Amino acid sequence: MPGLSDTLVFVPAWNEEESLPAVLDELGRKLPQADVLVVDDGSTDRTAEIATLHGADVISFGANRGLPAGIAAGYGYAEEHGYAFCGRVDADGQHPVAELARLLERVRSGACDVAVGSRFASGDGFAAYRYRPTAARRFGTAVLRRSMKVALRRPFLDATSGMYAANARALPILARPYTSTAPEVQALLRLQQEGMRVDEVPVDMRPRASGESKLQGRKGVMVVLTIAATLLAFERLRRRG
User: What is the pLDDT of residues 191-205, one digit of tens each?
Assistant: First the structure.
């Protein structure tokens, strides 16, 4: 059951029994005032059990439904239970909780409705080009950035980042079901359409403790091209409207 906090942090997880304990321990140390929810996406390992043992609330799907469903469920839980603020970190250990705390403070201050942690934005003491992606990822991010600039009419450097902080105004928008293989990109489009202020904030991220990025190799290139086509189609429809 939800606690007395005004802030929820949720963690989408699928078979993350190895990396999840460290993520939950870090949340307890760095954001002790926040309630924590693990969205268990039909895991076949001890993900749900570990989450419960660490004191997190748990939503468990009966079968694997994919990351888009997990993200919508997390934001939907926050909206349903009346949280004023909501954060998201991934279960693979990539997102330092101290960085999420910075994003939540930015939203809490009223500077923006949503803050997105960016590996590629610079400023505020964060150097440019501090991450050196592979050739395939460089190609993918270049295509994605150009497409996002067209669709959002503003630059956005790290559109697939999963480190988010949001206020209650943004929760109904973020909780809608996702139809894209890149729910973070779809979320940015929705937020822009609804007039939400979204800040891209430079952060440091760690190497993944497990799994791999969806922008890796040939599969990653195909994902990015599909996303780019979707974004360009969105822009054409907007012009017609």
Answer: 999 999 999 999 999
Residue among 155, 152, 163, 142 at smallest CA distance from 205: 163
Instruction: Give the integer Cα–Cα distance in Å for 197 and 193.
Output: 10
pLDDT, position 225: 67
Tokens for 26?
């870090």
CA dist 221 to 3, 135, 186, Å?
A: 42, 11, 18
SS3 for 13?
Answer: strand
Contact yes or no for 217/136 (Cβ under 8 A)? yes
pLDDT in tens, 79-91: 999 999 999 999 9
Contacts of 111 (CB under 8 A, 6+ apart): 197, 199
Nearest to 88 by CA among 166, 186, 10: 10
Q: Six-digit token pair at 218?
A: 């040939």
